[in-house]
């Protein structure tokens, strides 16, 4: 399911974010990233600064 050769996007859920910024852990390498939260009820896509994995965080559900 987590084939690194597949451009599949990780989707992780961090419910309860508030507007501003939040810390999430990269699903690939576990690095803690501080990310901007524009829509605490929606989802956003981020890129890990360490391994460049692209993942989407679902804040609201
Ligand atoms: Zn990473």
Structural commentary:
- The protein has 61 residues and is mainly beta.
- It has one domain (10-58).
- Helices cover 0% and strands 43% of the residues.
- It has strands at 10-13, 20-25, 32-37, 43-47, 54-58.
- It starts with 9 loop residues before the first strand and ends with a strand.
- The model has no long low-confidence stretch (mean pLDDT 85).
- The structure holds zinc ion.
- Zinc ion binds next to loops.
- Zinc ion is lined by residues 26, 28-29, 31, 48, 50-51, 53.
SSE diagram, text form:
Blueprint: E1 10-13, E2 20-25, E3 32-37, E4 43-47, E5 54-58
Parallel strand pairs: 1-5
Antiparallel strand pairs: 2-3, 4-5
Zinc ion is lined by residues 26, 28-29, 31, 48, 50-51, 53.
TL;DR?
By secondary structure, the chain is mostly beta strands. It has strands at 10-13, 20-25, 32-37, 43-47, 54-58.
List keywords for this structure.
two-stranded antiparallel sheet, single chain, mainly beta, binds zinc ion, globular, 0% helix, 61 residues, three-stranded mixed beta sheet
Q: Provide the spatial order of strands within the biggest beta sheet.
A: 1-5-4
What is the H/E order?
Answer: EEEEE
Amino-to-carboxy terminus distance: 22 Å
The pLDDT mean sits at: 85
Strand content: 35-45%
Are there runs of 5+ residues with pLDDT below 50, and where? none
């Amino acid at each position: 399911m987590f084939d690194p050769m597949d451009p599949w996007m990780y989707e992780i859920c961090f419910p309860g974010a508030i507007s501003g910024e939040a810390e999430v852990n990269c699903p690939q390498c576990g690095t803690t990233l501080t990310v901007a939260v524009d829509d605490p009820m929606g989802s956003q896509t981020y890129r890990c600064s360490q391994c460049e994995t692209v993942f989407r965080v679902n804040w609201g559900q």
